[in-house]
Write a structure and sequence with these properties.
11 strands
Length: 117
């Protein structure tokens, strides 16, 4: 079965950095397109970044230039490096695996990121 586990969330000051990790099991990780989503307080869940099996990336406009998505296939792990954090980045961040058909698939349980002013 597919299991996705996020880690690395926490409390950080504005302007600081944080690195999230998503460990995957039960899948052939290297073949999957993966993504990071977040849900801001009172808002709909939104895509933050995604990365294909070949390493191609896409970012939401709100995080371009500040966040970097990457993956280490040998470790079955995806990362989100978050720099220049802002209070509006405060959210629950989720790891997501796309299906073979390009639709949203499995989700992790989420990790909380809180950015203080």
């Amino acid at each position: 079965q597919v299991q996705l586990v996020e880690s690395g969330g926490g409390l950080v000051q504005a302007g600081g950095s944080l690195r999230l990790s998503c460990g995957a099991s039960g899948i052939i990780f290297s073949t999957k397109t993966m993504g990071w989503y977040r849900q801001l307080p009172g808002k709909q869940r939104e895509m933050v970044a995604r990365i294909t099996s070949s390493g191609s990336t896409n970012y939401a406009d709100s995080v371009k230039g500040r966040f970097t998505i990457s993956r280490d296939n040998a470790k079955n792990t995806m990362y989100l490096q978050m720099n220049s954090l802002k209070p509006e980045d405060t959210a629950t961040y989720y790891c997501m695996m796309y299906t073979l058909w390009g639709t949203e698939g499995s989700w992790g349980q989420g990790t909380q990121v809180t950015v203080t002013s």
